[in-house]
Queue: 4 jobs
Job 1
Amino acid sequence: MCMFLLSLYTENRRVNGSFSLKEHYNSPLYSVMNYTDQLIRGLTTQNAQNVDMLFTETLTNYLYNTHPANLFGMDFISLAIQQSRDHGIPSYTEFRKYCELKDIKSIKDLSKIMVEGSVDKLMKQYKTWDDIDLLVGALLEKHADGAMVGPTMRCIIGEQFVRTRVADRYFYDIDEFSQTQLASIKSLTLAKFFCDNSNNITIMQKQAFLTLSKSNQMKNCSSFPEFSLQNWMELI
């Protein structure tokens, strides 16, 4: 489920408001000036929603909405599908072949890898499984074990991360820093980053990517190791 209604949280992680993307398209300065800390707390408190083909109307009816009465907007899914066709993005089944996943040769094969109830809907929209658009097929695929996405999407995401790193000759761990400097960079946590770059966040859980729990409780920002620039100081 893709939703764009973020809850705003106080310092002790209590909800004190909400933030709708529908009402704030193309207004990042307003968000930064008014809700930075509340949004950071919300992003580190709320659970991530499932990755699937269910999308909020904020994206399907009000994308890039600029009308003062919020009457209408564009459809993100339709645009994404059309753009992939315009740019010649291969079909879902072609990407499965690229990722060396099992070929789809029958409805039975398709049913084994798609979420329940989706195959009949797909076959009403496409003449054959080889016509399924990448975005549609990838989002309807059953999730891989231990992942939030299916095998095809996991393959694509992994490939993109590898290519982005390899193609960037200035990537931070490719002979740009000394081992001491690299160790300092790797010691910086997201929790500490939020503490140092927010307006007034004084407590944060150690593992900011994970929600609060008994093993991941909030700690004072001062308890996190400081990021030192000492290793970058030139000797005079």
Note: The mean pLDDT is 88.
Job 2
Amino acid sequence: MKKSLTNNFDIVAPVYDRLSRLVFGRAQMNAQIHPLKNIPPDSHVLIVGGGTGWILESISRQYNSGLKITYVEISGKMIKLAKTADTGDNLVEFVHAAIEGYQTELKFDAILTPFLFCNFLQGTTALVFNKLHSFLKPKGLWLIADFTVNEGKGKWWKSLLTKSMYLFFKLFGIVEGNALTNMQPVFFAHQYVLKEETFYYRGFIQSAVYIKP
């Protein structure tokens, strides 16, 4: 029977950050850190797929208190690591769940999705986007960082690297996705406004902040 791919990074949790830095240096981290300045003070923030939790420490260095953070992560081992992060005086609720099944009546001022959509097949991408869209307040901010092959030159090596990454993670039975989705048209189709956009790793990594209408 074919093994189900659950987008769960338990198997690589202890070494994931080191693997990222080995391949991309600090590009993945910088793509997530740079837009944090846009988070409004005293806001309620949803982080989906935050991994080992280092992003919580980066947030606390800019906002040592006043934030309420809901941290949704499917990997139990990632959650365990994230709980050791220094979150300052911010209030953090850790939720061990797949975002596809997560339900809440809360509305958030900002949503962070670091390298989330690259895990999904197109159908799951649409489901997750629509769910998060419903969680975000009007005029709320959506901070996204992900891989892209759409920016600048070198599409051939970006495509080759993308295929290699998917092959690596599928060998460990981790991700269901097999191709990158260009999320910008999805945001624009829902009338989001692009506030800022930055590229890293020669255009392979995109960081963006969108404002919900």
Note: Residues 9-212 form a domain with the Rossmann fold fold (CATH 3.40.50.150).
Job 3
Amino acid sequence: MTWLRSSVVLLIFLTLITGVAYPLLATGLSELMFPYQAQGSMVEQDGQVVGSELIGQPFTKDIYFQGRPSATVGTPYNTSSSGGSNLSASNPILADEIKYRVEQLRKFNRQPDIPVPVDLVTASGSGLDPHISPAAANFQAQRVADARHLPVKVIKQLIRNNTETPPSEFLGEPVINVLKLNLALDNLQKKQQ
């Protein structure tokens, strides 16, 4: 019977350490050392929270850049069910989805002959990726410029200004946060009015 008592005591002790003390310590330290990130990296504009730097959002209007497609269940960019589609590259369903997305993007962006960047037609592993490549942004630049009645060179400069480049090629590719880029577009439009 002593083994049962020892097992129960050990279970309670480890539960308190790993289930209570460690999460409280980790949460407290992150709140203290990285408050912006610990609160979800929320982006505010005019005193209102408009999104997070870490989670993509669906932008459907032609005046905005669009992000990667979301593979989450229910609604796009649903944080409670993040995950990829889990369809293999050889799956005909995935091939049909990509073909459909390519057709839709070419129509929406009025770019019938230019290759569509892969990140605009494939979801990320989480289905929540808030970033696109500079190529994906440039693919959409003419549409956004036309919809906002701005020169395309202004839009392309905004893309360059919002491109995040890693300190080394080995640490990743340049990316653009779609929410930040769209907010920069709105701010540019406000300044011009």
Note: Residues 41 and 52 are 5 Å apart (CA to CA).
Job 4
Amino acid sequence: MKLFHIVLVEPQIPQNTGNIGRLCVASDSILHLIHPLGFKIGQKELKRAGLDYWQHLEVYQWQHLQAFWKAFPLDKQHFFFSTKARALHYDAPLEQGGFLYFGREDAGLDKALLEEFPTQVYKLPMKAGVRSINLATSVGGVLYEGVRQSQLYKQW
């Protein structure tokens, strides 16, 4: 079983997605891309950021969230990350096989989605006055908190 499922909802910047792909390979996680995307999968910036890791990445594309949820029904293992959350990512009970959702770089996850699952919404701590941090940095922070919690790294 893979470590985590990283779910990028409508990512816009290919370099971020490329970097996140590398994180997925390094952590034995799966990447799910929810359309519409702000780039083409073959775009050179995506491949450049992913380096030679992209060929080893398990990545899937979905036309919309409903199609994704049909394949992976929502349950307590789906976690949504947003600057609008109150709870910190350290408090999320991240377990192997969990789904970690991140929204568009310019808009985040849809407000209705966050309101529908309020007990499953978390944020990374940031100093007051800072609007957000880079998407790939956010994914890395959450993903490696999950690696720490799972303690599977001890097998690597």
Note: Helices lie at 14-27, 44-50, 65-71, 111-116, 135-150.
